[in-house]
Amino acid sequence: MPRTTSNPDGPKITIVTVVYNALEELKKTVQSVASQTYPHLEYIVVDGGSTDGTIEFLKSSEKVVSRWISRPDRGIYDAMNRGAELADGDYIQFLNAGDTLYSETVLSEVAQKLKENPAKVLFGRALTGSEERISWLYPSVEAPAITEWLKSHDPNHQAIFFPKSFYKKHQYDLKYKITADLDYKLRAKKEIGYLFIDRVIVKFALGGVSTQNGNFGFITQRIKESVMRNLEHRLYRELLMDPLKILFKFALAKTSGEKEYEIIKFLKKYQ
Asked: What is the DSSP string of the chain?
């Protein structure tokens, strides 16, 4: 049976993975969850109706996967909303197919921090990597600088644990087709605020983002959504800055190709 308890000595953590025709990536993520030493876990997989053997794999993984569903959805954020609806944990983490937890003990460390600071939005570091094997820590700043860093940055989404009081109240807004996670984090930041744990939580795979950065349609949609989001959250300074940053990444992807992330790492002084 999956590892879940009704009255655990520590918070119950729900991990939600959404997937669509990405069986090999899903296998990595499931194995990562299965290796955790922390016992009070609920693991939910939301599949968008895959045809690549994902369903057969999920049926064979029910010792690890607490619940899974497979049916068409309206995209990744719709699937994440479905996962949150099924979740019963005191906290929820969204771990996409292909992403992995950093170590076997990381959730035990997170759970201890959550136990000491209940009902907080907790985040840690992500080891971010591209297909070109360029990697960096995000955030890369030292712990004493995190408060200042948060004034102009948001944590990696897969490295965040949202309390039940937040994730049961809020859904990902589907009007944002590609950046609903940014809107979700801004709402959490305003409503509860962040608590930092100085641990690497997740290995985050950038995957095809470099290709998207060079896709004009993707960039146009991202700029549109940045304007909508910044107006909604009254981030007027970002109305100009965000489009400039997005256009810079577009130009960089077009001119530097596979060296894009190497240049970003250098310019931002990521470690």
From this structure: --S--SS-SS--EEEEEEESS-HHHHHHHHHHHHT-S---EEEEEEE----SSHHHHHHTTTTT-SEEEE---SSHHHHHHHHHHH--SSEEEE--TT-EESSTTHHHHHHHHHHHSTT-EEEEEEEEE-TT--EEEES-S-GGGHHHHTTT----GGGEEEEHHHHTT----TT-TTTHHHHHHHHHHHHT-EEEEEEEEEEEE-TTHHHHHT-HHHHHHHHHHHHHHHHHTT-TTHHHHHHHHHHHHHHHHHHHGGGHHHHHHHHHT--
Tens of pLDDT along 197-219? Answer: 999 999 987 754 434 666 788 89
* For range 263-271, the mean pLDDT: 79
* pLDDT value of residue 13: 98
Model pTM greater than 0.90? yes
Grade residue 221 by pLDDT with cuts at 50, 70 and 90. Answer: very high
